[in-house]
Write a structure and sequence with these properties.
With 415 residues, the protein is of the alpha/beta class. Helix content is 33%, strand content 18%. The protein has helices at 21-29, 65-70, 73-89, 115-128, 137-141, 145-154, 169-182, 200-208, 247-252, 281-294, 312-326, 339-342, 349-363, and strands spanning 6-14, 36-37, 50-51, 104-109, 160-163, 188-195, 238-246, 259-268, 303-305, 334-336, 365-366, 389-390, 395-402, 406-413. Strands 5-4-6-7-1-8-14-13-9-10 form a ten-stranded mixed β-sheet, with helices on both faces. Strands 2-3 form a two-stranded antiparallel sheet. The protein has a two-stranded antiparallel ribbon with strand order 11-12. The longest helix is centred in the N-terminal third of the chain and has 17 residues, at 73-89.
Length: 415
């Protein structure tokens, strides 16, 4: 029996650059970005005062005021992006009697979950006592609130779980959703990731970790993957959701197809809670397993959307990993880090970047790595610096690596 094929038929996201997939993708191609001063709270006492903040107004137009009260922002973003992705896919889960909702599910990742609700609830506890803590607090802060509320909103009764593997969460979720379709547990899966950690506590935590860029004087140029002057990542938020569908199911209903999700691989560094393996072995193994799953040779890959966070250790290790696996072909790869424009959306990043990779394959246009003025000596591959390119990308890879040593690679291809 041949393996069931998985294709991407719908895209939706919430980003600091906007909500429209086409508009934001075009802005990425144009070298624009969504980084600026944080205005949601007072940053006077913070060493870092900027990030990829989703605008407070108009970020969830598909939701009503009731949703705002019962959902943390990360779950709001996940649900809003899913509604857009379902519409993009032409799926009417509530009104189409031909859809078997027992065969439709959701797996959505989040590295942190409802941190803002945690902050607000704790402040209420301190200020007003335990009797004033909201009964909505637990349902809002739990990491599975994204996938759970998507299931409830659409009535999806198939596989439904959540993944929390830091910055690899969304990519892990997509890989798990692919397996659900391949293993005949579902025909349609909603998957990706969501994060809303641009909060008082979120910014304080990542600042204390000394993981963030300190370029307060020039925030739009702060995220500079692979550049010799990179000094940390830019904290951002948002959601990236894809509709995954079994190929014959999609074809039967005349769905448009952006790309095929051919394979995925995962590994663990087994080394350090925040630092990657210096020799890139864990990342290289995840990429190798993704290619093996996709039944492709290294020479088949044209493009990699790099994890590329703009950290000194991470960008170097990823470059080493790519060269370790791809050998001489590494010099022929076109690689870009779109975190240079979006910032690092943590557990949502793999969802946004799967969308960008799918759009790259569908349009033949590669988004640049902006702010790459002078590559580090150890970062010596083609990172598509500063200017977009037209390129016939037949097969693309999207990398996501997370604290805890989690490594995930997705392989997408033209249908």
């Amino acid at each position: 029996m041949s393996q069931r094929r998985v294709v991407i038929t719908g895209l939706g996201w919430v980003t600091s650059m906007g909500l429209s997939v086409d508009q934001v993708f075009n802005d990425l191609l144009a070298g624009k970005n969504g980084i600026g001063p944080i205005t949601r709270f007072d940053t006077t006492e913070y060493p870092v005062k900027f990030g990829g903040q989703v605008p407070q107004e108009g970020s969830t137009p598909n939701l009503d005021s009731r949703d705002g009260k019962r959902l943390d922002r990360f779950a709001q973003y996940a649900l809003n992006a899913t509604i857009d992705a379902a519409n993009d896919a032409g799926l009417d889960f509530k009104g189409d009697d031909k859809l078997n909702l027992w065969r439709a599910g959701a797996i959505v990742g989040s590295g942190i979950g409802g941190i803002e609700e945690f902050e607000d609830g704790y402040q209420r506890l301190i200020d007003k006592g335990p009797k004033r803590v909201s009964p909505f607090m637990v349902p809002k802060l739990m990491c599975n609130a994204g996938s759970g509320n998507i299931s409830i909103h659409f009535g999806l009764k198939g596989p439904n779980t959540a993944v929390a593997t830091a910055c690899a969460s969304a990519a892990h979720a997509i890989g798990n959703a692919v397996d659900c379709i391949r293993n005949d547990a579902a025909d349609i899966m909603v998957s990706g990731g969501s994060e809303a950690a641009v909060t008082r506590l979120g910014l304080a935590c990542f600042t204390a970790l000394k993981a963030l860029s300190l370029r307060n004087d020039d925030p739009q140029r702060a995220s500079r993957p692979f550049d010799k002057d990179r000094d940390g990542f830019v904290l951002a938020e948002g959601a990236g959701i894809v509709i995954l569908e079994e190929y014959e199911h999609a074809k039967a209903r005349g769905a448009k197809i952006y790309a095929e999700l051919l394979g995925w691989g995962q590994s663990a560094d087994g080394s350090h809670i925040t630092a990657p393996l210096e020799d890139g072995a864990g990342a290289a193994y995840a990429m190798e397993q993704a290619l093996r799953d996709a039944k492709l040779a290294t020479e088949s890959i044209n493009y990699i959307n790099a994890h590329g966070t703009s950290t000194p250790l991470g960008d170097k290790a990823e470059t080493i990993a790519v060269k370790k696996l791809f050998g001489d072909h590494a010099k022929k790869l076109e690689i870009s880090s779109t975190k240079s424009a979006t910032g690092h959306t943590l557990g949502a990043s793999g969802g946004l970047e799967a969308i960008i990779t799918a759009k790259t394959i569908a349009t033949g246009q590669i988004c640049p790595t902006i702010n790459l003025d002078e590559p580090s000596p150890e970062c010596d591959l083609d990172y598509v610096p500063n200017t977009a390119r037209e390129s016939d990308v037949r097969y693309g890879m999207s990398n996501s690596f997370g604290f805890g040593g989690h490594n995930v690679s997705l392989v997408l291809g033209k249908i």
